[in-house]
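Dock calcium ion; give full complex structure.
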Amino acid sequence: MFYILVLCVLSYNSVTECMANGEFRSDYTYYNKAGGWLKLHMVPANWHDARLRCQLEGAVLASPLNPELKSSMIDIMGKFDPVYTGIHSTFSKGDFFSIEGVPLSAIPAVWKHYYVDSYADDEGCIIMRGNEHMGDFKCSNVNYFICYKRADNKTITQNECGTTDSEYKLSTVTGSCYKFHRTPRTWSRAYMACAAEGGHLAIINSQEEANVLSEIFTAIPKKDITKVRGQTLAHIGFHDWNEHGSWLTIHGQTLKEAGYNTWALHEPNNVTGTHTGWVGEYCGSIYTNGQLNDIWCDYIIVFICEKNPLSLAMNWKQ
Ligand SMILES: [Ca+2]
Ligand SMILES: [Ca+2]
């Protein structure tokens, strides 16, 4: 039976904040008046990265679509002022819409004329200050930002992997959860995607775990996999940390310490050529059989995330 648990506390500014309405993520706070969850990102990002990070977290870059949501955004913003909103004109100069497609004209904005100046014809992203004032900014500038997940009528429930993302599956062999990403990314962007989901690029800690990843990889239809020069590879969580030839997991262990260092035949081979811009292979990947390969970090390929089921799990479940 489903039920909705709402735990509310009265905060210092007398705004009722509720811990949850259903279950989304432990790093988001439920705001009754906003009708959903909010998260303040205190590490500034450019607008495109802010949008992507919110999307990867399962949310959207927040816009003050109504007075209640705006007020909640200002509450959570605190001294992290200003924030990027999701309002942008990056598709067509001058056509401003929120991420959800709400036109600027329908958004309750307080404008200061000197903030909306399309300076140098190069400002397509809208910021908001704690005093409600909004203005346009160059999208490549970095700002704090807020992600928003609207609570719709469906009950949101975390699965056994501590996430609402049904693509994470628990392995009873390792006790970790895994997600195979068919949308290819560079190694660095793959790292970002896994982190936003509460996980990390998969780290192989045993032959058994290598077998689990191999099973997951092999089960993906070939047509869904972007190949690298005819080879089928997926980014995982090891890297040379800019010390060429010295391989560590992204959690700082040598491969041997981590528990698995079986390279594929003739790997690592540090292939370098015109196709890599004469840059070597400094990132980690696996073949479908789970064996290791060094790879050019900028190859845009599939990847595998690993997640501890307790990461992002709602507190009362632990
Ligand atoms: Ca692992
Ligand atoms: Ca290689």
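Observed: The first strand starts at residue 8 and ends at 10.
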